[in-house]
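Issue: ligand-bound run for adenosine-5'-diphosphate - logging full I/O for the record.

Environment: standard queue, default settings, no custom constraints.

Inputs:
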Amino acid sequence: MSESLLSLIGVDRNFGGVQAVSQLSFEIHPGEIIGLIGPNGSGKSTSVNLISGALPVSAGRIEFAGRAINALSQSERVGLGMARTFQTTSVFPEFTALEQALTACHSKFLANPWEAVFRQPRGMQEELRQYRKAQEILHFVGLGSVAEHPCETLSSAQQRLLMIATALASEPRLVLLDEPAAGMVASERKDLAGLIRRICDQGIAVLVIEHHMGLIMEVCERIVVLNFGRKIAEGTPLEIQTNPEVIQAYLGGAVDA
Ligand code: ADP
Ligand code: MG
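Outputs:
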């Protein structure tokens, strides 16, 4: 097995008296698709927030690409190759899909920003390169035909794909997807599964947080299961589906197929 890209080592997060994440440890390797599942309130979104740097850990250590990142800001983590989507879609409604994707390309803008402002040749070349890259990414996620459409006219599934495109535009090594299939119908979930596999084929690791067991079981090589902030199981989809503690954790809660 290759060296790990992301490691969580004994990570805790409390909100006042609530222990949202407790002693969580797991690893993600380059190009791997990992699922993070658990009933509502089990600590999935909090875990993503801790990994991305949206929230500080209360205790424990997070390493990315061989270095401790506890003290790094969200944008520093993006700079190291980590990108995320949110549980709720957050597009700029009046931007076109292409403009939305370009917002993330620009965070990787290589030319001197003054050159871009004053339309110097190198700045314009860079702008053109970013524009082409954003178009390519929109095609890659299946939004090529709506690149010029305002975000507010896109379906909710298309907005979710746009969030993934925006995440990919920062050229990440790891993408964190928080409930990417929320609100999707079966055919849209199938397309999403295909997209997640194509992301992984590019050598990018993907952490998928989902409520939808069907999607997770279909795409993930390994699954980490949380309950009340603790890891209760880790294994292949088959191991997880037949794990008595996992079945117990989901009893009483709806398990979507
Ligand atoms: P999940 O994404 O698995 O549904 P969350 O990570 O959102 O779960 O929440 C885990 C626990 O932490 C829940 O009990 C939730 O109420 C609590 N929690 C999450 N975020 C906050 C917050 N900002 N302030 C207080 N409690 C929070
Ligand atoms: Mg959540």
